């Protein structure tokens, strides 16, 4: 890393450590502070991100979404604004029967390590995803085989008919890396092994990452010289980074900071992200559905939207909000199927995480509402890295979680499978119901369009009638872009952010 880049990174780190102070940016590329003027800038983009990597930036985890937001890795398929599949590393695809697809691989693509993209590289990447432990969520309960038909054609055969295979292949967790990325021990290293316009050159643990422009990118060189990433999980610090010019682009500015910032630098994006209270359906107080129904009935989402989000969120009508405009039209009866019980002083542990600044505040109101209904509540608030493992193990009676419902495929079925099926690997609700599994399978097999939408609505109805969770609201995320920033994407799916066209002063 050169001297200028070091100054940029250390300045943003200082912002994170001194969020309550009046800060001054002192690196180039920012919109203020004591660094060079835009005319003298180094052409790099300083990015403040919400959460650090959870799995060493392996693309087989949720860290994949960081990699695609930096445009250092690419999938075979991309999605347009409507969620329809578009060419990326695959230029086209044809279906010869219900389970067989042939994909034509783009020619002239170089990996960052200098090797060439071909069918063998694609098959290798897909095989590594299939044999990973744990598997990427997009492959939960899913089987496929991949083979190279010729140098630039890959044949994929799915275990069951999959009408949305192209959308599935758009998942950031199925990006294609060079063979050198995959270790014999199952590790995956994205450093210098992607195909995007920016090459990941340095991973600074859970603090920073550095990317440089890849001049041999198949789509043409990027406008920016590189990207300097700093992870800033403190919301006030992210707001300060934008206010002082310490960062050019800032993820997820919390509501509490909005009034302190130049409104021209803020961009509000309705998200396919649902905040909910997940109940432990497997054991403890909430193994009894009548107790889950009592807790769900006690909650007042409107007061949470008004008092915590100051109106910058949408009241939920179910699992799916405004980002899926068809959801309300096909939604069934999502009321509880049982009468609420009397909590009678039952003691529960309510957990959430502090990385999203609003969630601890939500927890305070949820605690008050549950206690008003007769529960005794103990809170457990942690950083996300310490929260997720215990939540997945079912160590809490209830958790408050912000969940993106379209991340994996641009289609809700992958989310329903991973979060609510017996075999799901992201099942915070500890839910296992054969009837819900049957409905998820039916939705997975349904053709895109009205048929699939109605099948998804049937799954939603069954989950909510069982009181597996209590949806609260749908988030709107506020993205900060400093003065002079151009071409940053405002992606509701949180897949893209900086592209080859993004610039900063």
UniProtKB/TrEMBL annotation:
SUPFAM superfamilies: Periplasmic binding protein-like II (SSF53850)
Signal peptide: 1-28
Protein name: ABC transporter substrate-binding protein
Keyword Glycoprotein: no
Annotated GO biological process: peptide transport
Record flagged with keyword Disulfide bond: no
GO CC annotation: ATP-binding cassette (ABC) transporter complex; periplasmic space
Region (Disordered): 483-505
Pfam families, alphabetized: SBP_bac_5
One function term, GO molecular function aspect: peptide transmembrane transporter activity
InterPro entries attached to this UniProt entry: Peptide/Ni-bd (IPR030678), SBP_5 (IPR039424), SBP_5_dom (IPR000914)
Biased composition (Basic and acidic residues): 490-499
Residue ranges constituting the Solute-binding protein family domain according to the UniProt record: 86-425
UniProt KW keywords: Signal
